[in-house]
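**Polypeptide and fold**
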Amino acid sequence: MKSYKHIVFVVFFFSFFTVFAQEKSKKQLRTEQKLEKQKGIEKLIDAKAFEFVAQNSNSQIFRFIDLTANPNFVRFRPDFIKSEMPFFGRGFSGLGYGSSDTGLKFEGKPEKFEVKKVKKGYQIDVEVKGQQDFFNMTLSVSSQGSATLSIISNNRSPINYFGAISAIEEEKKE
């Protein structure tokens, strides 16, 4: 009878600890999620098709401006760029006073689209000619997807946006 209790105890002991030994720690789960996110960002960059959405902005005149309630995006593709970004800054020649041109809204085929792998992420350099302006954009993307977009234009002061990249959402037709 005593040996039966010992056998049951030993079997219970090993089965109990093998269940807990197979469970992953929170640190391991976070590391796996981080690696999965990095692979997803790498796929977006390799495909050269992604969307940048800004959460805040910083220009030479204004301090940080929260853009979370303001819909905005720049869609990047090697054959087509579309921008619907707000602009907070100084306009120069070529912009009509009181015109409906209130933001960095343009689309076109990029004259330059370069993707470079840098130390902690990627750098994408794009040049696009809009209807009335020329835009030089630099997008710096971390391996986790956070990004900084700098836009320099001929007719406006430089501006920076801070946000993240994601897969392009298809436009809804109304």
